[in-house]
């Protein structure tokens, strides 16, 4: 029977004492030193002693100085472990029973930074470094609690304003005159608000944030966002994804001195043009005017002139050029891009791919010759340019496209783009880039070049990064049939693209010779965008080393590069994608939320997939009543920038 005995137990991390009144099942009813009853679980109990005087134990506990006991114990030569009886004997050789209980109570308290329990009544002595670190931790905890207390006292003075914030529509915080705090924020308060910002960005548990803001706001993303914007800790248009994914944004402090010899380079005399997306500042490739439908010259910026360890390391660290609505973060130093970009009106070094091929029932490569060259781009064109200079390039690209998609069953993934830009004041501008024949043609020539690089490297056993994409044979057959039939049925292009996207595909980068089954190519390697993609940069470096007879990256070295590049690119692409979704949701909320928008249903299951022409996006939403696939409907768009959502709601 335990009635009347003394019990030591834990409650909320604190060691406490009481007298057992009774036990029922797994619970004890105890009497505290203050005389009140309390119920505790048996799992809270760590020691039970014979009946003793609780008040004496409390008094003895106050007298016990653990630091002194530790210092005395530590002075005993070769003493590493000590029993509870030995410790209390140092305090009082003629100790009373209550004194030992008081010691045990104190040893299990937060005050004990000197002794570490090994088992039962045996303890080890912490070394002075451990004690110092634990002391600093305690001091930090005390300081933190004081800071939290001061913060709550300060913020209570503006609680009425914070309550008003909670009921405000989030849309207000993206307006020109969103509400802000006009007073002075004390340093201790700002540090906690900055910590709240980090919690918002990283989305990782933070007990200090929970304690500081308990009773002030719910830790929901929308409420945190409002508070941070109100206190000017965060700009509503700030790109916090940079911090979330740890994106390097600093200017590259690398000395770039590019020079090359014309010796050994073939001078390209054929009329050559660069054709790229509107407004681009980086031109990785150019195409020479083809003489017939069996041969084409594709020229790639010669980044082998940057074959230096420090630049390669920086490329691996950054992964790719990142395009944000507010501007881009370059993978390479700006000077290097300017020197190597294949801009018009100046002779530039390049790596040329002379591709001989045959267009029949499939695209068959006959031969690939790769060599270093010097080109003179006559003019830089954009996809929207439809001029005489580049008609032969367009023609051959369209022929390649028709063969690959209609005869080989390759997926058709060249889609429209919606460009959205934002400045530091939150001004938004948009532009649509619609698919045209020139854009299709250039994309197909680029894919053919990737096929040629893969074909050449597999044939020559050159280790490079291949891009493997698989597609289920049944899915490929279905897409092939659909694409052929769609030529005779007036289907919207976005529906065709959606059906192609829905084909089951698996994409990975590998060092094993591989092909792009989804595109219809037996081999496929990176290499056409070396000024803005890490995979391409490394592959062009590797090909240049092969051409120069230099030592190439081994497969083992490429595998190590691959592991690092995949992580860098994954972070960069995630930041890029989420930032775009954030700004697109803001644009939708600000400009479209009160309008009925035209939408096309491209898929209907448990939910519908809508094509929203207004923002060139596929969105998932509720099924409309009595409306099937390929029907146009009116929808409202409900946007939530904080949670990166845009949901179409049928206007029924």
Can you describe what's shown?
It is a single chain. The chain is an alpha+beta fold. It folds into five domains: about 1-50, Roll (SH3 type barrels); about 55-125, Arc Repressor Mutant, subunit A; about 130-235, no CATH class; about 265-585, no CATH class; about 595-650, OB fold (Dihydrolipoamide Acetyltransferase, E2P), CATH 2.40.50.140. It contains 18 helices and 25 strands. It has a five-stranded antiparallel β-sheet, with helices on one face. A hairpin with a 2-residue loop joins strand 13 and strand 14 (about 325-330). The protein starts with 5 loop residues before the first strand and ends with a strand.
List the helices and strands and how they pair.
Blueprint (H helix, E strand, L loop, with lengths): L5 E6 L2 E11 L2 E5 L5 E5 L3 E5 L4 H10 L2 H9 L6 E3 H8 L5 H11 L7 E5 L2 E4 L2 H28 L3 H8 L20 H16 L4 H7 L7 H10 L10 H4 L21 E2 L4 E5 L8 E4 L6 E7 L7 H10 L3 E3 L2 E3 L4 H7 L6 E13 L3 E20 L8 H17 L9 E6 L5 E6 L3 H24 L5 E6 L1 H13 L7 H9 L3 E6 L23 H15 L6 H38 L4 E8 L3 E5 L4 E5 L10 E9 L4 E6 L2
Parallel strand pairs: 9-16, 10-16
Antiparallel strand pairs: 1-2, 1-5, 2-3, 3-4, 6-8, 7-8, 10-11, 11-12, 12-15, 13-14, 15-16, 17-18, 19-20, 21-22, 21-24, 22-23, 24-25
Helix pairs in contact: 1-4, 3-4, 5-8, 7-9, 11-18, 13-14
**Strand coverage percent:** 15-25%
Q: Please count the helical segments.
A: 18
Sheet with the most strands: spatial strand order: 4-3-2-1-5
- How is the main sheet built? 5 strands, antiparallel
How many β-strand runs?
A: 25
Q: Which terms would index this structure?
A:
652 residues; alpha+beta; SH3 type barrels; Arc Repressor Mutant, subunit A; five-stranded antiparallel sheet; five-stranded mixed barrel; 18 helices; 25 strands; 24% strand; elongated
